[in-house]
Amino acid sequence: MFKRIILDRDRRALLGAAGALVLQVVLRPTTALGQAAAPPMKIGVIGAGHIGGTVGGLWVKAGHPVFFSSRHPDELKGLVAGLGPLAQAGAVDQAIAFGDVVFIAVPYGAMPQIGVDYGRSLAGKIVLDAGNAVASRDGAIADEAERDGIGVTSQKYLPGAQLVRAFNTLSYTIFAREASRPAPRLAVPIAGDDPEAVQVAAGLVRDAGFDPVVVGRLADARRFQRGGPGYGQNVSAAELRQKLSLAP
Ligand SMILES: NC(=O)c1ccc[n+]([C@@H]2O[C@H](COP(=O)([O-])OP(=O)(O)OC[C@H]3O[C@@H](n4cnc5c(N)ncnc54)[C@H](OP(=O)(O)O)[C@@H]3O)[C@@H](O)[C@H]2O)c1
Predict the structure, then answer these.
(1) Which of 89, 103, 119, 248 has its CA at 20 to 30 Å from residue 239's CA atom?
(2) Global model pTM greater than 0.90
């Protein structure tokens, strides 16, 4: 999947009028995880509220084309108008079709329905999931996320997606305020089972203006779900690694 994205991107860059600058980015040597910003990538956002709108907006500012979606896309006109030509809005199925990568940022109680409605079109895609399960808002699925871990729970509802947990640990106000701050940047923990998907997610975290910290597989995402030691940590990558006893 990742290789296909890179090939598609190479082709687009070679054909595109953006010319030398894009070409330079695309052809630069592959670097280790998190050491270089990801080149432009089409991103579909499902749920363009506080967190989807904020993180999606940071990606637009980094040069990524972003398609925002919700059940009421007319309400997203102001958001995309403010972000400029790289941003557009529409229906959820359009966002999924648009995105090489999909970012899901909906109230967690909607995940089962999203799986039913869009699971097939999300299968095989890299999907970043920022949802948190809150019992008072999301109901019984919060018990499931607590019992099984939220990464495993999300994968259950989106089987076949190359899922990465990301951007769930802090308020959108903090992400908006701290993006691209002077070093040390704010850490964003991520976890996923597919190494290529994790690598893509790490690049997108960096492009949004943060330092990715790979915590492990989806089962390890419970370490930074609500109530976990990595949740709510407004710290640098070095500090987060230390808190989670990860290798420096
Ligand atoms: N707010 C934060 O600071 C923050 C931080 C980290 C993680 N999170 C997590 O991120 C998720 C979203 O939180 P939020 O605060 O951004 O919520 P929000 O501001 O209420 O936005 C939710 C978005 O999801 C859309 N949506 C809801 N149900 C949907 C469905 N079934 N299909 C498609 N779109 C749907 C909503 O639009 P429509 O109703 O028009 O469809 C809206 O655009 C939650 O799981 C939350 O726990 C939030």
Answers:
(1) 103
(2) no
